[in-house]
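Internal ticket #5521
Category: modeling
Description: The requester needs a full-assembly model to guide mutagenesis choices. All entity lines are attached below as received. Residue total reported by intake: 480.
Assigned to: D.W.
Attached entities:
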Amino acid sequence: MDEWLKDSTEVEASWVTVDLAIFTVRGDQLMVLLIERGLEPFRGRPALPGGYVQKDETLREGALRELWEEAGIDGSRLHLEQLGAYGDPRRDPRGRVVTIAYLALGPDLPVPVGGTDAERAYWAPVSELAEGAGELAFDHLIILTDALEEIRRKLEYTAVATVFCGESFTLSELRTVYEVIWGQHLDPSNFRRKVLNTAGFVKPTGEQRLPPTGRPAALYSRGSAWLLSPPLLRGASHPA
Amino acid sequence: MDEWLKDSTEVEASWVTVDLAIFTVRGDQLMVLLIERGLEPFRGRPALPGGYVQKDETLREGALRELWEEAGIDGSRLHLEQLGAYGDPRRDPRGRVVTIAYLALGPDLPVPVGGTDAERAYWAPVSELAEGAGELAFDHLIILTDALEEIRRKLEYTAVATVFCGESFTLSELRTVYEVIWGQHLDPSNFRRKVLNTAGFVKPTGEQRLPPTGRPAALYSRGSAWLLSPPLLRGASHPA
DNA sequence: TCAAAAGTGTTCTGTGTACACCCATGG
DNA sequence: CCATGGGTGTACACAGAACACTTTTGA
């Protein structure tokens, strides 16, 4: 393998990990799954779940495996997408560790199941991360910030919002996803028209659901389109 | 470091490389820089330039170094952005090599300078890649396809098109960048209005330039804005 | 009958689109 | 003078924003 190496003293193999930024919408909060580290470095500090990539798996397979091992989540029902690679040589005090960050999005998961490790796993509201709760380990705050920005942008031009909802959902639920993640109020009637006029975004199931109070709402399920055209742009307007 | 390892027989360190998808617009063609591999595997086949990440550099620094070593290009004048990580365990026949792909965009570079290695470096028109010219090494065709899609999308909502132009440029030149990359004709007068009405996209220099024939064109330079709002959407219309 | 949420309709305004037209230069 | 590309103006259709209004349920 060293036939490629130009100056073998300058190159060495690296540890490669995957880290997961797992988000869900619960009520009117965007939540991210964190673990409390049980080992040094950063012992006791919150961190994104993750771990080493194994010999014979793809990066995506590694992410799915960690999703299961660290959070007890079956990835087949969620949206998993690569966010990017983070490889600053000083990001891990123990040496060079390149991590591939993945974004995982899903409907309100039943329990923030503890991982197979000793670490505690829990859902944290994204809005409360800036202040206290202890600083995130490694460069995980950077990864999380990038993840958030990615979600906000993806809501505009993909149907990704639907993965935060269940199998079927009302337009109000879908709108709440947008409102929570963008942090701004959207006009219900305009949102409705926009979504229904975007070909393939959602399709009616024919069923209805009764809200706590008020008229029953029609249920929809995910449509066939992933890319939205025209996109659902968030104007700079709309104070929350 | 193995304090993290859950099952050390399943984990091993990986080689980490950076690969570069370097694009420029020349005339009415989008060009990508390829090298002809001088070594096995895939000897003699075209490939993206790239190489191993060294011990003490960030991924971005590695990309900049390879840009210089393999293509003789000074990265300070171009746009460099991470595309993603590619880590299928079978992507390199010699074993596990995770590569971080970078996108590099710049104005028509003077010469497709050969690298410091024996390999030949040359600009290839993107339009001719699908057909012959030999298949690309490794998974580089996948990387290139992802890169293209990324550029096309980024043209819509960022001012990235300006990095394909020189220090100052006419609106026709800027429009040509869009037309070449999107592969569709744009109305000159509407393009003009759109660009000038987007705050911070370009700013007039006051200079003019004489085209081969016709009225002199005003020159512009890059503005302060990177994100365009509103974005410059390509409708599904406009046959080239 | 009231509150609350779903759903419809309407008006206003801005923006993309298509296209006609004028301007400045070299040949 | 003409050809060529730069640059301006305009009319139309459509889409988003704001908001009034109707419908359907439970309490």
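Resolution: model delivered.
Comment from assignee: The two ends of chain B are 56 Å apart (CA to CA).
Ticket closed.
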